[in-house]
Sequence to fold (298 residues):
Amino acid sequence: MTNSWWELQILCDPALEDSIFWRLEDFGSRGTASEGKGDLCLVKAYLPKLPGATLDLELLSSQLHEDAVCVGSPIPTLSCELINEEDWATSWKQYWQPEKIGDRFLINPAWLPIPAAPERLVILLDPGVAFGTGNHATTQLCLESLEKVDFQGKSGQLVADIGCGSGILSIGALLLGAKKVYAVDTDPLAVQSTVSNRDMNRISPVSLVPAEGSVDMVMEGLQEPVDGIVCNILADVIIQLLPQMSNITKPSSWGIFSGILVEQSQTVADALEKNGWIVDNLLKKKEWCCLNVRRSQS
Ligand SMILES: C[S@@+](CC[C@H](N)C(=O)[O-])C[C@H]1O[C@@H](n2cnc3c(N)ncnc32)[C@H](O)[C@@H]1O
Fold:
């Protein structure tokens, strides 16, 4: 059990915030927070201190340097200190407030009261150490895309959430009317987080089925193909998983693919087309985009 954490602090130009976020995710960060510091932005990231493991801060620092040079921004400064579990939990939680997403969702941190008569679908979340608080553009684009799915018109929909993180998208799909979601993540801590968020939102284990693994795990659990897939990972992982994801769908299935940088959208769209999908819509937020697609056989 982890009881101390590395806190990394990166002071940067706001234009670099998202690329730093993804570098940190890649580096093993379990939670990030950011705040304005005058004209600059202070990004904090938390990584568990694992026995015997060291942090390659030189590598991270040179990646941050390269990214800044690429976009002509000042070079960010990086510092690191060890903090205990309680400080980590408090540092992380103080940044996180209820947030409206799209037209229908309200993300409510689990430790804050729920509004008395919410007009929105409330997703209670304690992401723990998993990705998916709803405050990242890629997650928001997925929730906004899920709102467009006709869950009422075509009831009983089965959905696969590939890379479920905190389970936020699975819970969102179920609140909108999906019948059942198979949620998978290669990170066991993300699976634990999806289970606890499922229970906190009083969703039945029959409706939300989390498992450690990837598309192959969904395939193992399925009795029939899914009606829809939501996958917020990264462009290269989406491309790599596309043949398998296509294999678990029906000719009429829909897909929501996010975690794609705008400049990668054409490459992902081409890969989708090769795998029998048509891109219906492209949603953008900051430098991220999300592709709303359907099978071309429908
Ligand atoms: C960007 S997070 C998305 C979390 C959540 N779905 C959201 O939208 O906020 C991506 C998640 O995908 C998981 N992941 C990465 N590669 C994967 C793979 N090949 N198969 C399944 N999950 C993967 C990561 O562990 C991480 O939890």
Summary: The chain is about 35% helix and 35% strand.
